[in-house]
Design goal:
The protein is an alpha/beta fold. It contains 18 helices and five strands.
């Protein structure tokens, strides 16, 4: 686990959090744009709450026994709840990640939801005394990944909080959470950094072409760094090159090339491209793909607003089902052919 302090753009939020120490809520809800470091902030909070000797700024000391356990994911009073798919994607040394249920489900695709057994598994931890009479902390993300049974089970714990227990929920989309859960948490907004701060941070990390990757991710620096270092950027470049020359033939070829790529991600890339075409037509401004200025302006001159609005609505509907298509290739063929038809007149 990283020993970094909170990011520069989160300093005000951290000071607010440390100011609550004397009247600590039983549940926090961190919310804001994806890719800005909310999960990191949540884990810094958890580590600080469990630390035996935090510093004057409220940061964990990094040296006590509690901090050592936390770094190794072996603290008896800490749990992290997240979908199985994140355990597989990010890897983990968590003891709790190796539950019998997780082991038995390895033959199946990892779940993208937080399910009820993960919430119920907290009961054993809740029913024993905390280590050295300190706090226990549960970090749960993304909160909107909870299915309804899991959300209802969590709600019971929030309605009847256990002593010395702090829940930290992290969400990219407050509107996808049960209002009853939102109302029982102390909300802490973690906003987007300024473009200047985000760029400075990316450049410190050695990210090449930082401005373009930051634009692609809507100003979210961690998301920009992730895609700049990923294998997906080659697929993205292939896709954008073909989107710049819409045709039925290229649509079919593109669907074949992209069928093994994460479909919600492909649709989101296309949604941003269409947004830029629409934005150029309306305001002359390109937000996500400034490197494709010439191509996007050319496309904007070839379509009408009605077709773009209809395409944008359709892509939103397709995004809602992109995680579970009957056939990825056929799904993408429909998506790209509909895109090409908007520029065929």
């Amino acid at each position: 686990m990283s020993t970094l302090q909170v990011y520069q753009w989160q300093q005000d939020a951290w000071r607010y959090f440390t100011g609550l120490q004397s009247r600590l809520p039983h549940a926090f809800l961190l919310h804001g744009p994806a890719g800005t470091g909310k999960r990191h902030f949540a884990e810094r909070m958890a580590k600080a709450l469990l630390c035996e000797t935090p510093d004057a700024a409220g940061q964990a000391c990094g040296h006590c026994g509690s901090c050592g356990w936390f770094e190794q994911y072996s603290h008896p009073d800490y749990r992290r709840i997240r979908p199985e798919v994140l355990e597989e994607d990010e890897g983990s040394g968590d003891a709790e990640a190796e539950t019998s249920t997780a082991k038995s489900s390895r033959s199946k695709a990892p779940s993208k939801e937080i399910v009820i057994h993960q919430i119920r598994a907290l009961a054993e931890m809740m029913n024993i005394s905390t280590h050295r009479n300190g706090k226990r902390v549960i970090v749960l993300y993304p909160a909107e990944a909870m299915n309804i049974p899991a959300a209802n089970a969590l709600l019971k714990s929030l309605e009847e909080p256990h002593p010395n227990t702090v829940f930290i929920l992290v969400s990219d989309s407050l509107d996808k959470l049960l209002p009853t859960i939102v109302s029982r948490c102390h909300q802490l907004a973690l906003g987007m950094p300024t473009r200047e701060a985000a760029l400075a941070w990316l450049q410190q990390q050695g990210v090449a072409d930082a401005a373009n990757w930051l634009a692609l991710q809507g100003g979210a620096p961690l998301a920009a760094m992730e895609i700049a270092a990923s294998e997906q950027k080659a697929e993205l470049e292939t896709m954008l090159g073909m989107l710049a020359q819409p045709s039925a033939d290229l649509s079919l070829k593109l669907a074949d090339k992209m069928q093994k790529t994460d479909l919600p991600l492909v649709v989101s890339w296309l949604q941003r491209w269409v947004y830029d075409v629409f934005s150029v037509k309306q305001t002359g401004i390109i937000r996500y793909y400034p490197r494709y200025d010439k191509e996007i302006r050319s496309l904007a001159s070839r379509c009408n607003l009605h077709d773009l609005m209809r395409l944008s609505k359709s892509l939103g509907e397709r995004q809602a089902i992109a995680s579970h298509p009957l056939s990825p290739k056929l799904f993408l063929e429909d998506v790209f052919l509909e895109y090409a038809s908007a520029f065929s007149s």
